[in-house]
Amino acid sequence: MQVQQRQMRQSPLLTSIVSVILGMLVGAVMMLVAGYNPIQAYIALFTSAFLMPYDIGETIRTITPLILTGLSVGLAFRTGLFNIGVEGQFIIGQLMSVIVALKLDLPPVVHVIVAVIAGAVGGALWAFLPGFLKATRGVHEVITTIMLNFIALYLANTLVRNWLSAGSDSTEKIPESASLRWDVLSSLFGNARIHLGLFLALAAAFVMYYLLWRTTWGFELRSVGFNPQASEYAGMSVKKNLVMSMMISGCFAGLGGATELLGTAEYLSIHGSHTGIGFDGIAVALLGANSPVGILLAASLFGILTYGGSVMQFEASVPYEVIRIVFAAIIFFVAANIVRWAGTKFRKKAVTKDA
Amino acid sequence: MGKQSWGILLLCALLVITAGCGTAGNQGGGNGEEGFSAGLVTDTGGLNDESFNQTAWEGMTRAKKELGADIKPLESKRDDDYIPNLTKFAREKRDIIWGIGFKFNKAIPDVAKQFPDQKFGIVDDSLGGNIPENVVAVTFKEEEGSFLMGVIAGSMTQSDKVGFIGGITSPLIKKFESGFRAGVKAVNPDAKVTVAYAESFTDVAKGRSLAANMYNGGTDIIFHAAGGVGKGLFDEVKTRKKGKYWAIGVDMDQSGLAPDHTLSSMVKRVDVAVFDIMKDIKENDQFPGGKEVQLGLKEGGVGLAENTDKHVPEKVMKKVEDYKQQIIDGKIEVPSTEKELKDFKG
Questions:
Q1: Cross-chain Cβ contact B77/A320 below 8 Å
Q2: What's the pLDDT score for residue A272?
């Protein structure tokens, strides 16, 4: 029994590792077919993500928002919700923080804190809508959050054009008082755009772990996700917990948007389509098996692949699209749960042999 | 946090260390003794955008052929990629690094400040006048070329309705719009110009639906200045009656997209501009740093596609030539903003 339990616990890690390896194999095959040398490409990819302090800084910068959007999706999954609206909540986070950064005149440290909080609150409120609709009207959150993604995108575009900038396609740069960059940190990494958002992301991972597994409230949230009827019967308020999970999830996503804007871009421009960071969060959560540590690792892997992938294009002239294929293949293998399938086959064979 | 988590962390640390230790292979790629090297970073449109990224790259390949330059492109997938991409080239100490498109107007000054010994070039933006000493800003008088497109459209429309599809609303695209509308007004004051913005440079489907709406509304000639969105216009016009519905391309000769439906294209010689500046650096060691290089009809920076006379009758061509000369001579001041357009008498 104990052995079986341990196997059950190990399986997400095993699934993830095997899926990553298989995904990279698929990418290698693609490269071979297209006439590139996969070994050279992968070496270029991984070494260049860490080549110089600058690259390490930029890799970490790429990882940071993926951690937050991954946590956002992961937390929602844990509480029985499928939050596809991370992208929209991310954009609202960016929007709120850029508004605070540009329109309010505050002293240095206070300014950035208020801007970050505004982003997180904006994301939470944007996620409140689908949560509320699901709780009161039973509208499925997948539908509402997808729609809200588009509303967020075009709302941000409209505000940037008509209010935040004078008819141009992007806002001014935010003042230094609202920036999340820290000179000491940047100079350590060769002036890369690494920023304090990293520590907020790590803190958020701890918050998710502590909240869900170390508090009664977190137990309620998870329990509502597992079985709403039983939770209701046990005296928990399903509706309240549902709305709250959605808002915490949105808060993480909004925080991701805020830190990305205040740390990395430092301005908001009009986007023709979604940034994709929110959607990558779904992949991160899936690969990380919705656990905080898993999400940290998965976000690191995807961040390395994303940043290293663009350098790989530079060093080995392999097109960046190959990296997206690797992404997709990894997700495919995780979702299809190849490992368990192979495991059961193998075990069956072993059993028949024994008999 | 059980034993397992520690195991994972250890594994991760190991991965980072081994990857970090991997020797940094070829860092070079830089310039040899006499060699000249150049790097080009595209905006999110990519190298094959049938637009200014592609023409800029043509200028680079010409530099490879004629100057023996070592050239390399980097495509940006997101706005966040601009700075790392420029930095990669700067670290290689390439002789000049191009950022193509006005979207680079925040990244170029940042990177130029960090690498004061490197030369940079930006196309389509004047950086609000604050051009660092190691940066050259190349801009075009798009309104002048667009004016000639307006002359063609205004003279050839049967329905007195012509259309304009813009990319993202911005001062740059407004230059195209103003010039085009002024050109139409000059030759055909009765014609109505329908204007629509896709608010994207990549959304092909949006371009197609905007074009379809305009054609359905009676418009017979549409000019676009919308990057990749314009492909949608050509997809749409191809399905319509030959000789009645027309499209006008932008940035490069786009007649290949719909040979029987393309009247002309407003070509923007990004290739010439990029090549000339590189040639000056290589052969004369001259670099117009800190300056804005403005190219119009007079400098040959903008103009008509060469095969324009294929579908445009000689009478109209003559008119176009006439207006072109007047602009070059300074007799016509083409408006470049909406405000100037209002005051334009034609």
A1: yes
A2: 77
